[in-house]
Amino acid sequence: MGELIFRPDPAVWQVVPPAAEAADWYERQIAQAPAAARDAVAAASALALRARVDTELSAVLLLIDPDAELYAMLAIAALDGVPAPDSAEGAVGIAEALVRSPWPAEPLAFDFGAVTGWRMTLLDEAGAEGDAQVALPQTVSTVYVADARRRCVVVTLSSLLPLAAAVVQTHAERLIASFDIAEGATPGA
Amino acid sequence: MSLRAELVESGRGMPGFAVLLPDGWEATDADFGSLRPRLDAVVAQLPAANRAVVRERVEAMLAAARAEAARADVIRAFAPAALDPQDYVPVNLVASWLRAPAGGSLQDLGAGLIANRGALPLDPGGTILRWSADQEATVEGGQVQVAGSGYLLPVPGHPTVGLMFRSQILRGVDDAVLAADGEKNLSLLCDAIVASVRWRRG
Questions:
Q1: Is the dihedral of CA B146, B147, B153, B159 positive or negative?
Q2: Is the dihedral of CA A156, A103, B101, B136 positive or negative?
Q3: Residues A189 and A115 sit within 8 Å (Cβ to Cβ)
Q4: Would strands A134-136 and B17-18 be described as parallel, antiparallel, or unpaired?
Q5: Residue A63 and residue A105: Cα distance in Å, rounded?
Q6: How close is the nearest chain A Cα to the Cα of B12, in Å?
């Protein structure tokens, strides 16, 4: 299968390196972080490394903005031999299998030309306030199910406050719009 | 049966839902019990000489609100939780069950709202109806203008019951008027809150 290629904006995203480079990358993250945000940067970087090392994801990207106290992780999986779903129901099924929520995912179709698909926003049960009658979720998760040259690419954005999610979704969508499949290319190149 | 028991009884068997509130907003029960600490704090900030009178007025307003909530099958009221009067944002959103008249369906109610109130779909799927519900009232000799909207959502598994939201934005009192941008932003905020409703899977 061809490799997924994409062009992350370096002003927004860091591509989390594979295990061989993990220790150096982690040390650099800590060293470059403002003192007040060092713990948060360390935690976000460790989580991103774990996702990168423990799974067979195509790539993991990290957004760190200590001034805005914004930390987001984007996990990208290009599925081998799996065609992209051709309906919102299929995309919702993938999203709901990835992110467990008592409330259904809300699909929104996108079309970036060469890349099409659905964005699903899911309300997170963890941390929700309220009660059984009226729940007040505090965070949302986002799953993109994209068709890049007939290949299914699933992108999961970490749990975020709704306003932060709205901001990071625009960054994520710029990245998704750059998706392409090329034989022999290096992921993230 | 107590008022609270009546309120709980009226909502029994109805599905739960989730709603996303903006930062700093809170949900208040239909018996307004959770408002008590905040009202006490506000009254405590007043000059001692005025407290008794204000407290009496507040108690009367709360009693009227509780009676209205029971009559209207109110589920929750949502509003910014500012304690400091300087941070007060003049908006609230009330969620209630709306039951179709005997023999009718929610679809009939929706058709009536479209025909008589100019209701239009809020969302691309057309599941949320929204209509303008501005009000003007005379309160203690002054004119109070309240902008707002009504929203109606179908309730899964209950063809004769809808989930209604009613937004109220204090547009102006006599000559003091909220800026048009402020009113528009608060209106969009209420739209977004209602559009975030998701029904819990059964």
A1: positive
A2: negative
A3: no
A4: parallel
A5: 24
A6: 9
Query: Which run of H or of E encompasses B62?
Result: helix B48-71
Look at residue B1 and give its three-state secondary structure.
coil
Q: Which site among B14, B17, B20 would you substitute to test the A interface, given the most A Cβ atoms closer than 10 Å to its Cβ?
A: B20
**B16 φ, ψ to 5°?**
-80, 160
Q: Given its phi and psi angles, is residue A177 left (phi above 0), alpha (psi -120 to 50 degrees) or beta?
A: alpha
Residues of B in contact with A128 (CB under 8 A): 18
Long-range contacts of B3-9 (CB under 8 A, 24+ apart): B3/B31, B3/B66, B3/B70, B4/B31, B6/B70, B7/B31, B7/B69, B7/B70, B7/B74
CA distance B137 to chain A (A): 31
Tell whether B199 lies on the interface with A, counting CB pairs under 8 A.
Answer: yes
Partner-chain contact A103 B200, CB within 8 Å: yes
Here the ipTM equals: 0.82
Give which of A103, A139, A142, A160 to mutate to test B binding, by max B Cβ within 10 Å: A103
Contacts of B197 (CB under 8 A, 6+ apart): B17, B18, B19, B153, B163
For chain B, what is the radius of gyration of the CA atoms? 18
Q: Answer whether B163 touches A (CB < 8 Å).
A: no
> From residue A131, how far is each of A54, A134, B28, B122 by CA, in Å?
35, 5, 12, 27
A157 — contact with chain B (CB < 8 Å)? Answer: no
Chain segment A15-59, per-residue pLDDT in tens: 999 888 999 999 999 999 999 999 999 999 999 998 888 777 899
Q: Does B75 touch chain A (CB under 8 A)?
A: yes
Is 0.80 topped by the overall pTM? yes
CB contacts < 8 A, A to B, total: 52
Per-position DSSP letters for B99-115, written without gaps between them: EPPTT--HHHHHHHHHH
The number of residues in chain B equals 202
Beta pairing partners, A134: B17
Chain segment A128-154, per-residue pLDDT in tens: 999 999 999 999 999 999 999 989 999
